[in-house]
């Protein structure tokens, strides 16, 4: 029991620890320390139960480890050839080591010392609690915080200057954004699955879905909104041939989302006393519409950043400059190597070869997940929501520098384990 407490603590810190740098020891932040401690705990569990019940690894488990190993040239040789500091390279890409947790974790799951269903339920609960935290901060800030004091207090508590934005945006919307807010995206699809596919606790699950959706709205992050919309559309398309009862649930869920969006809009109605003014000046609607506005400041910055990244990549098109490389003067965060245009940045750092490796890795994960999809009806149901959530996550990190950190890699690890683990009813066919 004690050995399972550290992994639980690591999960809690992942959701509520912001950037995970609020405390450090020997140069390692608390999140990395907890991940290392979790790895050691898993190894101890394997050794403890090895004489009694053995797990196993399969040939198909090679994907995460091979991917990490094949990234080593861009952590060492390529940066050295381009005079990029190895320390800076490791600072950017050390989160890849989170994927190594796959091996002890999948071994313990197959030996039945860990139960994936319970772990998923715990993760879902933490995601809903994170959503509640967003909404509590938003309500208090919307009503009382006119000087952005909450955001300043949170930055002082977590001892960071970036990774948190809580305060009033230039257009007047009170935004609540943490670097961990991206965890709300896969949480949304877990809640959607429970609402549409499970008959028990439907009212509670619907409330959770509403809370998570509202929290995604108050992050005021267009990438999240579009990612969730696209992922949901994909899920519905995969489930469109289901029964009329499921279609009615989908319609009901859509109506709940519309009512929720209308609630945010009515806040402006009460403020302006004019429906036409509220409709034309609603912050959420204007924020979403700004995605296609070439004059939007954020869009212009990302476009300029993309052009400069592609220009730099063209000078090293095959292998790039390595992790940790950057374009001097063209960044928007405290790390010089961090860019919001994720795919162009990957292309500049790893070249065509490295980007091809990343694409092959993502395709490999989807192909492994598809093996459940073709097995039976239970697999097809699971796959629709898994793929919708996975695509939403990939889209969400395209315009935000959230892939190369412990949170982004932990989410990727979750999707890989979920695609690999046998989590099916006893009467269903088992997959190797």
Layout of helices and strands, plus pairs?
Blueprint lengths: L1 H15 L7 E2 L2 E2 H20 L12 H9 L1 H4 L1 H5 L4 H8 L8 H9 L5 H29 L4 H10 L5 E5 L5 E5 L5 H14 L4 H17 L3 H17 L5 H29 L2 H7 L1 H7 L7 H17 L28 H32 L3 H20 L9 H15 L12
Antiparallel strand pairs: 1-2, 3-4
Helix pairs in contact: 1-2, 1-8, 2-7, 3-17, 8-10, 8-11, 10-11, 10-13, 10-18, 11-13, 12-18, 13-14, 16-17, 17-18, 17-19
Structure write-up:
By secondary structure, the protein is mostly helical. The chain is globular, with a radius of gyration of 22 Å. It has helices at 2-16, 30-49, 62-70, 72-75, 77-81, 86-93, 102-110, 116-144, 149-158, 184-197, 202-218, 222-238, 244-272, 275-281, 283-289, 297-313, 342-373, 377-396, 406-420, and strands at residues 24-25, 28-29, 164-168, 174-178. A hairpin with a 2-residue loop joins β1 (24-25) and β2. Residues 268-280 and 423-432 have low confidence and may be disordered.
Please write the string of helix (H) and strand (E) elements.
HEEHHHHHHHHEEHHHHHHHHHH
Number of helices: 19
Instruction: State the end-to-end CA separation.
Output: 29 Å
Whole-angstrom Rg: 22 Å
Q: Which keywords apply here?
A:
432 residues; mainly alpha; two-stranded antiparallel sheet; 4 strands; disordered C terminus
Summarize this, please?
With 432 residues, the chain is mainly α.
